User: Which sequence fits this backbone?
């Protein structure tokens, strides 16, 4: 009888531990969800030309407006430019492609792009939503009027490019990936944990 009570006690403790783990994971998901792509923002208009997006990179103190592709303000000699081939931040597997001048002057928005590091955060504000990106790669590409864009892992990406400071024969390219919580992995984990809880005898 004592042996049975001990086994039952261990089983009860084990179930409580599993419930605790599940509760912690659930709380973590709620926390992550509240910090990814949910911050509302207000995009203002400038000189009657609607701003499509805004970009902020805290680590290099960069902030700028991005205009519609067909806008006269979407000009690299005036502002940060959104390429015609670009997707938008809310598109699955989409790649946002943005360019700007480096060097000096008021339009040299990407003058400090070469100071970015892997894992630095980039914020894009679009359609009243904040999208967070993490820098994954920084490299040079031959300056021939185009850059090579790939999305082999089918994630939402952001490409930033500019003339490489001190070497105008190359583009400096920064590749970032959007931070998105993978709910399918979490649900799969929950199913496994609950299966363990309710199959223990």
Assistant:
């Amino acid at each position: 009888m004592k042996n049975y009570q001990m086994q039952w006690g261990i089983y009860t403790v084990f179930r409580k531990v599993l419930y605790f783990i599940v509760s912690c994971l659930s709380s973590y998901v709620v926390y992550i969800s509240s910090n990814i792509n949910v911050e509302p923002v207000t995009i203002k208009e400038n000189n009657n030309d609607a701003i499509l997006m805004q970009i902020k990179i805290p680590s290099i103190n960069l902030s700028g407006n991005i205009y519609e592709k067909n806008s006269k303000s979407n000009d690299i000699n005036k502002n940060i430019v959104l390429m015609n081939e670009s997707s938008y931040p809310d598109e699955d597997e989409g790649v946002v492609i943005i360019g700007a001048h480096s060097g000096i002057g008021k339009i040299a928005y990407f003058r400090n792009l070469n100071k970015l590091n892997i894992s630095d955060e980039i914020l894009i504000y679009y359609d009243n939503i904040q999208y967070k990106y993490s820098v994954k790669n920084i490299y040079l590409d031959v300056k021939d009027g185009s850059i090579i864009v790939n999305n082999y892992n089918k994630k939402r990406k952001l490409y930033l490019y500019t003339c490489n400071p001190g070497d105008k024969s190359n583009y400096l390219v920064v590749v970032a990936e959007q931070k998105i919580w993978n709910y399918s992995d979490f649900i799969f984990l929950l199913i496994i944990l609950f299966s363990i809880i309710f199959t223990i005898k």
Q: What stands out?
A: The longest helix spans residues 2-33. Residues 29-45 have pLDDT under 50 and may be disordered. The chain has two domains: 2-36+182-199, 51-178.
